[in-house]
Amino acid sequence: MANGIPLMAAPAPAAAPVPTALVKNYARQEIRFVRGSGCWLEDDRGNRYLDCFAGVAVCALGHAHPAVVATLCRQVATLVHVSNHYQIPEQETLAAQLSASAGFGKLLFCNSGTEANEAAYKAVRLWGNITHGGRKTRIIAFTGAFHGRTLGSLSITHNAKYREPFAPLPPAEFLPFGDLAALSAITNDVAGVFIEPIQGEGGVFTAPDGFLAAVRAACDRAGALLVVDEIQTGAGRTGKPWCWQHSGARPDIMTVAKGLGGGVPIGAALFSDQVADLIKPGLHGTTFGGNPLACAVASTVVERVFAPAFLTQVTQVGEYLRRGLAAAFPGRQIRGQGLLLGVQLDRDPGELVKAARDEGLIVGPSGANTLRLAPPLIVSENEAAEAVSRLTRAARRCGI
């Protein structure tokens, strides 16, 4: 133990492959994590890893956080699930927290980010059909976007690798991300525009200063809905409850998931009143969305994450980590905000991700040539420094 950081011995050899009944939709690594604590994971061979990926920006309070554990145990012993045909007090509590944090809207719960974006896509269609008699039909997204893998959310995901096997998809158009002149394509026949403030899967590209506000203005001129995808950037990850709040460009619809539940699956779509009032019984639904267990845990997460002192800490540690990465990778672009950061490489990040894992550090890829760090929001400066140290050793091994 040094400066509160567990020392890392050479990892024991990875476990041997075992037969599996799982579909091979993931290229799973031969590591089996069996427990976690704070920002640390342990595998079934006793190796410890500093987690700077948080289950793809999900474990906002890290692993086995005492407040999350207490809420889980209490709720499991009380009520796990009840149909959405009945009122659920835990939903009402969480809905009020989220609405207050965003300063607008009513919401519906679901189970994941792609479901939240699917609900938003349907709401945009509904609004265009009912409010404008079907005259607004165009859906716009941006190059580099990733909004999910259901058919609606996939249609506004830009990467052809994800789209082409499932064509034809619902129609959508893509404008160049960050190009102000391209916003002239947002005209009176546009129903909705989907955008991520930071493209978490597309290379950790942040919308240029003023761009999100310009998209908001273009939507206002055209009478279109602005949908901001906060699946990866929300729930405190950038130092504010929601990333769009850095720009003040308030959306008409906001989608959230990932860090919201701290590891328990939950998502939500927040709507302005003009959209929410159109959604009547039977138009959308989900069996598991917003059940008492998920909502109770999410309420515990946001109660802590949205505290001003906590968000200040996220900002400070994020800047500390950014400076460390800039020093470790001189001349390389460091992108992102808060605790969602990307290091621009000149190659596929896979080799560096593996080398980092061999150093006891979990990081991930983003896009074709970007290394992504999205640690738990509780990460300390000491742990951030240790992450940079391990990543530096890994980069040297890769000749980076």
Q: Key terms for this structure?
A:
2 domains, 17 strands, 12 helices, Aspartate Aminotransferase, domain 1, 400 residues, Aspartate Aminotransferase, domain 2, alpha/beta, single chain
Please summarize what this structure is.
With 400 residues, the chain is of the alpha/beta class. It has twelve helices and 17 strands.
What report would you give on this structure?
- The protein has 400 residues and is an alpha/beta fold.
- It has two domains: 88-305, 3-Layer(aba) Sandwich (Aspartate Aminotransferase, domain 2); 308-374 and 383-400, Alpha-Beta Complex (Aspartate Aminotransferase, domain 1), CATH 3.90.1150.
- The protein contains twelve helices and 17 strands.
- The strands form four sheets. It has a seven-stranded mixed beta sheet, with helices on both faces.
- Helix 3 runs parallel beside helix 9 (292-305) and helix 11 packs across helix 12 (381-397).
- The longest helix has 21 residues, at 308-328.
- The two termini are 28 Å apart.
- The relative contact order is 0.16.
- The mean pLDDT is 95.
